[in-house]
Specification:
Distance between the termini: 41 Å
CATH topology: Growth Hormone, Chain: A
Shape: globular
CATH class: Mainly Alpha
Helix content: over 70%
Number of domains: 1
CATH superfamily: MFS general substrate transporter like domains
Strand content: under 5%
Largest sheet: none
């Protein structure tokens, strides 16, 4: 544990993942609550629920895309800022109770969740490269434990925030802030995440990849 604490790359990736997980879990519970306020509550909640699990379908595609990127640290940091921008847009839309706007909000949240899966696929090679092989199992266990804890805290924070303020826009802004902090953390340790130059060869065609997904 002490050795991992001294590993700047591990600390950077773990702290960034902490804030990202809070943001993701926070807004998923907020979105479910928001959907319940509509006249067609059952249908809207069902759509939100489906959109929450849908990103898992894209796991192979996001993993393949992550493998093909040589500048994984750049992509990882850039995605956090892009996700922050998505939630800033979402915060402007969530003020009006319109079905059309809710559908757009669901799509934005879905896109952010898919980008979160891509981030996870980018993060794993960085951890493997920067953490000694004998410590990798411990590092993964710590990350998974923190992820479970932060999901619970994020949901509790979302419910508490909504109960205290009733302000969905504020929740969107808070979510954007969590991703912004994650991006800044990655930038602060950007140099420690540098990987050795390597040539990436993509052997599978897109058609072969679709067959694997099917």
């Amino acid at each position: 544990m002490k050795n991992l604490g001294r590993n700047r790359a591990f600390v950077t990736l773990t702290v960034a993942d902490l804030f990202e997980t809070i943001g993701t879990s926070l807004f998923n519970i907020i979105l479910l609550t928001y959907a319940r306020t509509f006249a067609q509550a059952n249908l809207m909640v069902s759509l939100v629920s489906v959109a929450t699990v849908l990103p898992g379908i894209f796991g192979m595609l996001t993993g393949r895309l992550a493998d093909s990127q040589t500048n994984k640290r750049g992509w990882l940091a850039g995605l956090k800022f892009f996700q922050a921008a998505l939630y800033l847009v979402l915060a402007q839309l969530i003020t009006e109770k319109q079905v059309g706007l809710l559908l757009i909000i669901i799509v934005i949240n879905l896109c952010s969740d898919v980008l979160g899966m891509l981030s996870g696929s980018l993060r794993m090679p960085l951890l493997q490269a920067k953490v000694a092989s004998e410590l990798q199992e411990e590092a993964l266990g710590i990350n998974q434990g923190i992820g479970v804890l932060m999901q619970t805290m994020g949901q509790a924070l979302g419910v508490s925030l909504l109960a205290a303020t009733g302000d969905y826009r504020l929740a969107g802004y808070l979510n954007a802030i969590t991703f912004l902090i994650a991006g800044l953390v990655l930038l602060s340790g950007y140099e420690t995440l540098k990987l050795p130059s390597a040539t990436v060869t993509v052997t599978s065609t897109f058609r072969q990849l679709l067959r694997q997904v099917r």
